[in-house]
Design goal:
The structure is a homohexamer. The first copy, chain A, is of the alpha/beta class. Chain A has 7 helices and 6 strands. Chain A has one domain: Creatininase (Rossmann fold). In chain A, helix 2 crosses helix 7 and helix 3 packs across helix 4.
Chain lengths: ~250, ~250, ~250, ~250, ~250, ~250
C-alpha cells in the first residue's frame, strides 16, 4: 500500500507489521542522469518489492528525497542534509510507522553515501525504540552486477533506462563515459584520500554508463525486488527480542 | 526547473537566484482524501508557481513529504518528525540550494502544523545563513477561500478533485462530511485546549468536504499560483541586506 | 500565591494543580515605553488572573524576562535567547512545577514573538511530559481591542499607563506616534518579507500610542484577567488524558 | 541603568561597555525565607554595585530567576532548569548585551548550585564569543562572613532582613534553626555523598538563621557592593585580548 | 613522539604537520583475549607507524579507549559510548592537534564498529574544520590476512600473541575456537539481521583464534605498519585544498 | 581488576558493584613534566585504591585521557574536549559499567579543570540514570599537602618522581621553578580574571616543583590511596535511594 495515496481509514484496515521506507538523495549523477536518481530508484525498488511480496501487505512510506550527499556539493544542484538530520528524520519516521503497528521496517536505500548513517540509525532504533529497522541498499543486492556500481555508471543508467527512460539524456551518454572517472578516487592503504567526489571526477561520473542498457535495468530491478522480498520474509520471521545479558 | 529530473549540468546552466521548496506532510485527511494531501498540494502549487513566473527561471526542489504532524498521530498512517528535525531539514536543504547561487528561497507549505516551525527556521536562515528564506502557506493566500480551510475540508478536497481526482474517494465524501467536526476543537480565551486533533474529530475531518468541487479546486490553484508569483517577484526584488544596528 | 515570595512550607500547604508562568521579553518598545514592557505586562496579567480566580489557589511562578526577540536586535537594549533556549527554559520550569503537583499550567505570554515557540513547547509538554500546558497571549484575548495591537502602540502604552505610569515617558509619546510605522512591515501574499522590525520602523513603534490612555489600560487588564480566569477554569476541568489511537 | 525600565533610546545614549547580569534561583530556603531568595539577593547586589560604581554607567540586565537547583527538587516550590538550559540562557543574554557594545559582563550570582555551570559558560563566552564574561558569587566576596554561608542560614537571612524584611517569617526562625542541619551533608575524602539536599536537611536549612540580623545584612550588602565595584573596575581595565599560542 | 610522555616544550620543538590518533574500544574479545584488545592493537600500530615513518616526526596522541561498541553490550565488561559522543571526542581532539600545527591526522582504528562513525567525523573535519583527517583501520590494510578478520579470531589473537602475549589466555583458546561462531551473524540480501553480536555468538568469538600464532602477529604488525607509513606519506603530500564548485 | 586487561568471562566472574573510572587530561605541565601527567596520576591512584580496597573487588576502567583543558590551549601539545563532550563520555562509560552491575562508580580525577563538569555529570547520573557516581579529585584529598597544589608544581612533580621518574626532566626543574608563576592568575573579589593559563604563566608552571621529591610523592600516593579506599567503603555502604519529595 502506497501510504501517501491511501486514506487513513484504508491504512487502518491493513493487517501487517511490515513497512518499507525509501531513502535516496538529490545529487549530481553526471551530465546524462537526473539529480533525483537515488530516490527514484529507491522508491521503485521499494514499491516493486512491496508489490511482489506474497505473504501479506507491506506499507510503502513516501520517499526521503534528500540524503547525506555533501561529498557531491561542488556539483550544481546537489542537495544534502547533515548526517544528524538524516538520522533524525529516519528515526522519527520509523517511529511513526511503528506507532501504527508497522514496527518491522526495511529502509530501502539508493545512495551509497547514506549507508553509514543509515546503519547507525537502524541499530539505534532496534536497540532503543519499539521498532525493528534493517537497512537495505538495493545495488549491494543484485548479485554480480553489484561490483559494477560506480556512480551514474552502468547500474544506475541501466535502471533508469528501464523505469524512467525519458530521464536519461541519451545524447550525452557517450561524453559522460569518456569524461568520467574509472574509480572512486585515490585509495592508499584502504583509505580514501578524498572527502569530495569533485577531487577525482570532472563530470561526476564513475564507471561507464554505456554498459547499462534497459534490459540490464530490468534485470537489476528484478534482482533487487527478489532480494528485498527475501529480506522482508526474513524480517517478518525474525525474533526481535533483544539478547539477554551474557552474565 | 524540476531539480530532481534535471541533470547537474542543466541545473548549472540556469541563471537565477530563485528557488521554491515544497513542504507538506503525510497525515490523515479523513476517510476520503489521501494521507499525502499536504505534500501533493504543496508540490502542485510550487510547480505551478515556478512555471507561471514570467521573469526568469525558478528552481523547484523535491518536496519534503513528512512534517510536523504529531497532532494527528492517533490516526493510522500519520507520519511525523519532531519540529527540530523539520527545521534542520529545511535549513540544510535551503543551505544546499543557496550554495549553488539559488539563495532566495520561498518555502511553499501545504500543512498548517508546519507554520510555526517554518516561520522560525526561515527567520533563522535569513538572519544567520547566506540565504533569504520566506515561508508561503498556499491556503492562506487564496483570497476569501482561506476562511473555509478546515482540515480535509472544502479547500483540500476541491484542490485534489481538480489536480488528482483519483485520490478522492467520492463514495465516502458524504460520510466524511456528516461525521466530521465543525471547528478546530474547543477554544477558550483564544487558547486551544486540545493538543491532538483526535480530541475533537472522530474521522479527522474539519469542515464540509462537499463544499469543494473541482471547479473550486481550479480556482484555488489559480489563486495560489498567482499569489506565489507575486511573492517570487517581491522576493527577487527584495534588498536582503540586514538592517544596521539602530545605535 | 506568588511563588518567589512564598516559603517552601507555605507552597507545600497549597492544595491546587493550577499554576501560571509569565513569559515576556526585554526588547525595544519605542522611545516612550520600557524595554521590559512584555514581561511587566505578562506578570501583571498572570498575577491578576491568579488573584481573581475564585475556585481555588493558583501558583504564580516568577517571570521569564527574556524571550524570542531577535527581530528587534538592531535596537539597543533588546535582549534575546534562541528559540531552542526559550523552549528548554519553559519546558524545564513547567516540569518543575508539575513535579510538585501543579501540573496544569497556563503560560501567560506578553510578546508576540514568543507565540510560535511557546505553542510548540506547550504541545510537546502535553504530549510527552507529565503535565498539561496551555499558552495564553493576553493581548489576543481582550476582545475588540486585540485588533489594535501593533508594537509599543495603543494597547501596551495604555496597559502601562494604568499599571506602571512612571515607566511611560509622556513627553515622547507624540514623537513616538509620529515617527512610528502604521503596519508590521510589508506583506506580500500573506508572507512578511522582513525578518527584522528595523526594516520597517525607525523608532520601533507600530501603531499609535496616543490611542491608549490609562482607562483603556484598566479595561485591558480587566479583560485579560477575565479571559485568563475563564481559561484557568477550563484548564482545571479539562480531561487531560491523551486520545486513544483511532485504530 | 536598569535595562528593563529604560527605553531603547535611553539605553542607546549610554556610553559604557560594562553590564551586570543577576542570576539566582527559585528554590527552597527553609520555612522562614522565600523561595526567591537567591535571585532577590543577586539582583540587589547587582543593582547596588552598578549604582555605587563611580567610574561610569553600568547596565543592569533583568534577573534570571530560575537556576541549577535540582538538588533541592524534593522541597515543594523549587524550580530548576537543566545546566545546559542555564548555560544557553546566560550565553544568549550575554551575547545580546555584547551586541549593543556592553561586552564586559559580570554575572552576579546568588546561588551556589549555579557556580560550576556559570564558570563554564563564562569561560566559553570569553574564549569563543565577542564578549568578556566573569562570574561573581556575592557571598564568596564578603570577607570573613563567607565562611558562615550555609543555606537559608545566617547570611541570606540577614541580607533579606535588611533589604526585604517582610519576606522573612520571623515567627519561624527559631524552628528553622532548631530543625536545620549543621553542615552540607556527609563528606568523605572531600567528596559529597549526597546528590540532593533532602538527604541531609529536613527543613532545607543549613546553618543558624538566628545569627543574621538586619545590621549584619546591611554589612553584607555593603561588602558585596564594594567587592563588585572592585571587580567592575578590574573588568573595565582588563586587556581582554586572548593570549597568543606559546609556540 | 608519544605526546602523553613529552613535555609541551619538547612538543613545541617538533617540526611536523603529521599526527596519529589511536582509537579502539573496550569490549569483549572472547574468553581468551582482553577487553582492551582494540585499543591496545590500535595504539601499537599507531606507535609503530610513527616510529617507522622515515620522512619526519609524527605525533602520537594518547589512545581513545572506549568506542562504538553497543553491539557487544550483552557481554560483561564491554564499555561503549554513543556514536555522537565518539564523533565529538574525535573531532575535539583532532581540532586540538590541528591548533598546534599538526593538522594532517590519521586516525588509527582498531575496532570495526567504529568505522562508520569515524568515516563520518573525518569527512566533517576535512570539510568544515581547519584540519585534514583520514581514517585508517589497521586490519583492513594487512593484505590477504584481512579476509580472516572475524572477532577475537585469528588476526587479533595473533597480534597480541606477538605484542602482549601475557594478555592471551592460552588455556582457553581451544574452547574459544570450539564455542565461537563461524560468521558475523545471519545475512539476508546483504543485510545483517542482528543488531547485537550476542544474537549469533555465545562466547563472543567469530573465527578461529587458533589460526593466529605469534609469527603471524609479527607479520600483521609489519604489514599494518607499512600500510600506515604509506598512508602517512600520501597524507603529507596531499593537496588538502577543497575542490572548487563545478559551476 | 584492570578491565582492559581482563577477559569478559573473568569480568563476569567478579562479584562487586564497585568501579573506579580514572579521568585526567593531556595538557602542558611545564618544561619538566609530561603532558599526560593528569591521566597518569589519576590512573595510578585509581589502580592503587582498587588494589588496596580490602572489602571486595573493584573494577578499574581504562582512563579517559583527554579532559576539559581549553585553559591550557596556548601551550603546544595540550589536547582538550568541550565540557559537553567530556560529560557525554563519562555518562556513557558509567552507564556501561552500571549495565554490568558495577553501578557504584567513583570517578577518580587528576585535573582541576575537570572538576566542575565532573560534579555536574555525576549528579546527573545519580539523579537520572540507574547508577550512583561520585567524583574524587585525588589532590584535594591528601591532607595538608592539598594547599600546595599549583600546576606542575610540588605535588604533581613529586608524584611522578615516585611513580614514573623517567618522565620528569630533572635538568629542567630549576628553570621550571624560576620561570613559573606563584599563583593561579589575578583574582579580584574572588573572581579570576583570566580565562587562560597563558595569561599568568609563561612556562605553564604554578608553584615550585623543587618542593616535591620522590618521598613526598610516595606519601601523596599513600594518602590518596587511603582517601580513595575510605570513599569506596562509604560508597559501598551508601543508601542510594533518592529522597522522597518533602510534601
Amino acid at each position: 500500500m502506497r501510504l501517501a495515496d491511501a486514506t487513513w481509514t484504508d491504512a487502518d484496515g491493513v493487517d501487517t507489521d511490515l513497512a518499507v521506507l525509501p531513502v535516496g538523495s538529490t545529487e549530481q549523477h553526471g551530465p546524462h542522469a537526473p539529480l533525483g536518481t537515488d530516490h527514484i530508484t529507491a522508491h521503485a525498488v521499494a514499491a516493486a518489492g512491496a508489490d511482489a511480496y506474497s505473504d501479506g501487505e507491506v506499507i510503502v512510506a513516501p520517499p526521503i528525497t534528500v540524503g547525506v550527499s555533501a561529498e557531491h556539493r561542488q556539483f550544481t544542484g546537489t542537495l544534502w542534509v547533515a548526517p544528524d538530520t538524516f538520522r533524525a528524520t529516519v528515526r522519527d519516521v520509523v517511529g511513526s510507522l511503528a506507532s501504527h503497528g508497522w514496527d518491522r521496517v526495511v529502509v530501502v536505500n539508493g545512495h551509497g553515501g547514506n549507508t553509514a548513517a543509515l546503519g547507525e540509525v537502524c541499530a539505534t532504533i532496534t536497540r532503543q525504540d519499539d521498532a525493528y529497522a534493517v537497512p537495505f541498499t538495493w545495488f549491494d543486492a543484485v548479485g554480480d552486477h553489484s561490483s559494477d556500481m560506480g556512480h551514474a555508471g552502468p547500474l544506475e543508467t541501466a535502471f533508469l533506462r528501464h523505469t524512467d527512460p525519458e530521464l536519461i539524456r541519451e545524447d550525452r551518454v557517450q561524453a559522460a563515459a569518456e569524461d568520467g572517472a574509472d574509480a572512486w578516487g585515490k585509495w592508499v592503504s584502504h583509505a580514501n584520500l578524498a572527502a569530495d567526489a569533485a577531487a577525482f571526477t570532472d563530470n561526476g561520473v564513475v564507471g561507464d554508463p554505456r554498459a547499462g542498457d534497459a534490459d540490464r535495468g530490468a534485470a537489476l530491478l528484478d534482482a533487487a525486488t527478489e532480494s528485498l522480498c527475501a529480506l522482508l520474509a526474513a524480517v517478518a520471521d525474525r525474533d526481535t527480542t533483544a539478547p539477554l545479558p551474557h552474565r
